[in-house]
Write a structure and sequence with these properties.
Length: 85
């Protein structure tokens, strides 16, 4: 149970989360920042295509869904891993 609350403890400053989880937390946010910048470029180029508005919306929603799934997956992985694995 203690592992599942690692993110909340890190954000509120209540207790130690360990060096491994803190580094994993930083790495996941670095990846999210890079993906955010790339998605902004993606949307700029998507707007310049000749696809219909419906296809552009679908592509944009798929990208946003993929980014959310990736972020949730990284946080779940952080909460289930132990140091040294």
């Amino acid at each position: 149970m203690q592992q599942r609350w690692a993110l909340l403890r890190l954000l509120t400053g209540r207790g130690q989360v360990g060096e491994f989880r803190e580094e994993f937390f930083r790495a996941s946010h670095a990846h999210a920042g890079v993906l955010l910048v790339l998605s902004l470029v993606y949307f700029l180029y998507l707007d310049r295509t000749e696809y219909s508005i419906a296809v552009q919306w679908l592509a944009g929603l798929l990208l946003v869904a993929a980014l959310i799934i990736l972020a949730v997956g990284l946080l779940l992985e952080m909460s289930t891993q132990e140091e040294g694995q």
